[in-house]
Amino acid sequence: MQSKMDSRFNNSKHINMQKVLLSFAALLCIIGSTISQPRGHENRYKQVSPIETPEYSLEISDAHSQTNFTLFRAILTNKTSDYLVYRQADVVFNYDHGKFTQVERLYLIKPKAKLVRVMKVAGGDKFHVDKLTVDFNCYSRLALTGAHENVPNYVISTTGEKDYKAGNFRYKVLIVTKETRETYALFEVEYTGTDFGIVDPRKLKVTLDDGQEFENYKHLRLRILKPGQKMKIGTVFRIPVKTANMHKVNLEIIWNETFVESKPVKLASQTMVLEMDPNKIVAKAEPRAPRTPPAKTTASRDTEAAKREAELAKLEAETAHREVAAAHRETEKAQSDAQKAIAEAELAKAEAILMQAQAAKAKAEAEKAIAEAELARANIEKEQAQNQTQSSTDVKYRGSGDPLKGLNVSTAATTMEVGNYYALLIGIDEYRGKWPSLDNAVNDVEEIEKLLKSKYKFDHFITLYDFHATRTAIIKQMEWLIDNVKPEDNVFIYYSGHGEFKQNLNKGYWVPHDALTKSTSEYISNNDIQTYLGGIRSKHTLLVSDACFSGDIFRGTTISVPFEDSEKYYKKIHKMPSRKAMTSGGIEPVMDGGRDGHSVFAYYFLKSLRNNEAKYFDATQLYSDLKIPVINNSEQSPRFSPVKNTGDEGGQFVFIRK
C-alpha cells in the first residue's frame, strides 16, 4: 500500500514538474519572441511601373514601411513646354486605418526638367502594412501664355511717382540713373493675385520720341511668382551718342507682354498600388502558433504535450527549410557580388594608401608649425624675461606699440571676454552689365540678417544689397572695418552673388553689382579679400561666401584646434585669434536655387543657426551641420578652413545666443 502511495506521489510530483517546466518554457518563448522582434522591422514593396501621361512621367523606387512611417523616392519628369505645379499636400497615402498626407509645400518644375523628392508620411504606429495605395492628385499644368496685363508705359524719370499697379501686378521704382551713354532702372514687382504671375523682362523695350525702340541690355530670364511673391527687374539701356544723348531725351519703357497672369489646369489623378515583396522582408519575425489550453486530465495532458512537440518539430522543420532557402539566395547573391567586392576592396586599399600619405604629409606640416610656434613663444618669453626689471615706461619696441599687436596674437585670459560683433552682409540679385540676374541671393542675406538680429549677439550691421553693392562700396566697407574694429571685436562677413574664376590667371573673384563687362578690372579678387581679412584687427573674423568658385580663397595648408563640447574649449578657441572662411563650394559652380526660396547652401546655413539652442555655437559646429546635407542635395561641396597668411592662430568664431 505504501509502495502504491509513493508511486502515485512520485507520478504527481513528476506531472507537476512537467507543468512547471512547460509553463516556464512558454514564458521564455513569449519573452524571446518579444525581445527578438527587430525594432527596424521593415516591409519593402514591389517595384511598380512608372506612371506615364502626355504631360509627365512619375517613377518611384525604394518604397518601404516601418511601424511609424512609409516613404519612397519619386522622380517626376515634365514632358511639356509649360511649367508643372506640384502641391505636395495633395499626395494621399491610403491605409485601412485612414488617409495621410505630407506637409504643404509647392514646387514648380521647368519645361523638360526633372524633380527628385522623397515622399514620406508619419504619425502613429500602424504604417507597417502589406498593401496600400497612393493617390497623386497633385499636379497641374501652368501655361506660359495667358491674359497679359495692359501696364501703362513708364517714362523714365529720376523724380515723380514711384508706385504703380496694373491688375494683379504692382511694381515700384527703386532706382533710376540717366547718363549720356547709359540709363539704368531697377524695379520691384509683386504679384497680388491668387494664381500665378509670369514675369518675362525680355519682352520690355525702351523707345525714343521718334519711335525708335531699343532692347534691355541685361540678359534676364522669365520668372514665375506665387501669390504675394516679389522679384526685382534690372534694366540697362545703351543708345549710341550719335543717335541720342540719353541724359537729355525722353525715354519710355514699353512693357508689352512682360506681365501675364496664368491659372494652373489640374491634371487627372493617378493611383499607385504598393504591395509587399515577400522576398525583401527585413528581419520579419515568424508568427507564433496560438497556445492550446491545457487539458483537464493526466492522459489528455500527455496527449496534448505530444501533439505540441510534434507541431513544434514541424514548425522547426519549416523554419529550417526557409532558412536553407534564404541561405541559398544569399549564397547566390554573394557569388554574383564577389567581383564587385574585390574591386571595391582594391579601391579602398588604394584610398587608404593615399590617405596615409596625406596624413603623413599633414602630420609633418603640423609638427613644423608647432615647432615654429614653440620657438616664437620661447623667443617672446626670453625677451619678456630680459625686460622684466625695466619699468613699463622704459619698454622699447622696434616700431610703434606692442609687437604682438600687429601679429594678432592675444595674451592669455582666464575669462571669456567678448568684444563687439560686426556683420557685413552683401547680397546681389541684380547686375548692371551682362551678368544674369539671380533669384535668391538678396533673400538669403536678408533672412540671415533677421536671424542674427533676433537670436544672436551682434552689435553693428552693415548691409549692401543690389545697387548698393558696387565695387567701391564693398572696398570702402572693408576699409572701414580695418579702421574701426578693435582687437577684442569679432567680424562676420557674408557674400551672396556671382563669382568668377579666371583659368589663365588661376584666380577667383567676387562680381560686384556694377561690373559692366567680364574684365577682372571690375571684380574684387580673392587675393584682395584675403588682404582685407589680414588687415582687420579683430579677435575673430569669419567670411562666408555663397558664390561660384569661392573655394579659391583657400591657398596653402593650415590646421585648427579640434572641436570639443566644453566651456574650456570655447574659452580656449576664443582666446586664440582666427581668420576663417566657409564657402558654398570649391573651385566649381554653385546653385542659386535650392529650397524654400534660398540657395541650397543658405537653406542649411539658416537651418543650423535656427535649430541651435546652445549658448555658444562655433563655426566648426555650423559647418558640420550643413556639409553633408548640402553635398547630398546638390552637386557642390562646401569647404571650411583658415585663410592662409591672415593671422589665424587656431581659434574659432563663436555665435553667442541672446
What's this, in brief?
The chain has 658 residues and is an alpha+beta fold.
Keywords:
single chain, 658 residues, alpha+beta, Immunoglobulin-like, 4 domains, six-stranded mixed sheet, five-stranded antiparallel sheet, 9 helices, 38 strands, disordered N terminus
Folded structure, characterized:
Helix 4 (441-455) runs parallel beside helix 8 and helix 8 (600-611) crosses helix 9. The chain is flat, with a radius of gyration of 35 Å. The protein has 658 residues and is α+β, with helices and mostly antiparallel strands. It starts with a helix and ends with a strand. It folds into four domains: 43-145 and 266-280, Immunoglobulin-like (Sandwich), CATH 2.60.40.1240; 152-257, Immunoglobulin-like (Sandwich), CATH 2.60.40.1240; 332-386; 420-656, 3-Layer(aba) Sandwich (Rossmann fold), CATH 3.40.50. Helix content is 30%, strand content 28%. Residues 1-5, 29-39, 284-289, 387-414 and 554-561 have low confidence and may be disordered. The strands form ten sheets. It has a six-stranded mixed beta sheet with strand order 27-26-28-32-33-37, sandwiched between helices. Strands 1, 2, 3, 4 and 9 form a five-stranded antiparallel beta sheet that branches.
